[in-house]
Write a structure and sequence with these properties.
Elements lengths: L15 H4 L5 H20 L4 H8 L3 H8 L8 H10 L15 H13 L2
Helix pairs in contact: 2-5, 3-4
């Protein structure tokens, strides 16, 4: 890259899944936020996945999947129930609004790239 080349800066939406056109962007974002909190608890308490299993009854393999951010098998309510087992209260605030025109264009552009 030369110093004469221009770089386009695009402001993200705050949700990387939405920015890349994931049709379930809001759910994926929520699951990542919940998983991050679970990982934070494991780290703060210095819990191995086996110790976390003995404390919560949740399989160690599930904690391994969460630590490795392999969240495909989890629903948001399952992640919330895991947090509850750590005596955490989860409050979710929902705001519904129409997608912006710009967002719709990005989704259409990404759709056209995937035949």
């Amino acid at each position: 890259m030369t110093k004469d080349e221009k770089i386009e800066i695009v402001r993200g939406s705050g949700n990387v899944f939405r920015d890349f056109g994931d049709p379930n962007a809001d759910i994926e974002q929520l699951k990542c936020i919940l998983a991050t909190r679970i990982i934070d608890i494991l780290d703060a308490k210095k819990l191995s996945v086996r110790k976390a299993e003995s404390l919560t009854g949740v399989n160690a393999s599930e904690f391994s999947h969460i630590r490795n951010v392999k969240l495909g098998r989890f629903t948001a309510d399952r992640l919330i129930s895991i947090l509850n087992k750590f005596d955490q209260q989860v409050d979710v605030t929902v705001e519904v609004q129409p997608r912006s025109k710009r967002q719709k264009k990005v989704i259409r552009a990404l759709d056209s790239m995937n035949p």
